Amino acid sequence: MSTSNQEVNTSTPLTSTSNAQTDVEKGRDKVQVKDYRTLSICSIICGLSCLGIVSLIYSVKTRELNKRSPAETSPKAKEYSKKTLKWGVGAIIAWVILILVFPLLMGLLSYLLTFID
């Protein structure tokens, strides 16, 4: 045995961290688009519920497209996912703005009514 200047490779190989799941039976990768179901439900409870319902509708459509075509990511599913996120966040932001603006408007109205007397 001769000793050579070979270095022992003790580093760990890089691993991929993606959302892809392998379907063992069919050998295909399933890429799921996020459907933001939790955000949709929270936007109904903690935001403007009419906007939260729109978000939930897009969330359901995204989940159905994920079930229907698991082999490839549908561009329509990505579009619905983006709309779900926008409507959900918009519902919560609109509710926060409404909560902040309403007391200010009531104070302004009260101030203006003092001038009438």
From TrEMBL:
It comes from the Eukaryota. GO terms for cellular component: membrane. Coiled coil: none annotated. It is found in: Membrane. Keywords: Membrane, Transmembrane, Transmembrane helix. The chain crosses the membrane at residues 38-60, 87-113. Residues 1-22 have a biased composition (Polar residues). Residues 1-28 are annotated as: Disordered. Belongs to the CD225/Dispanin family. This is Transmembrane protein 265. It comes from Bagarius yarrelli (Goonch).
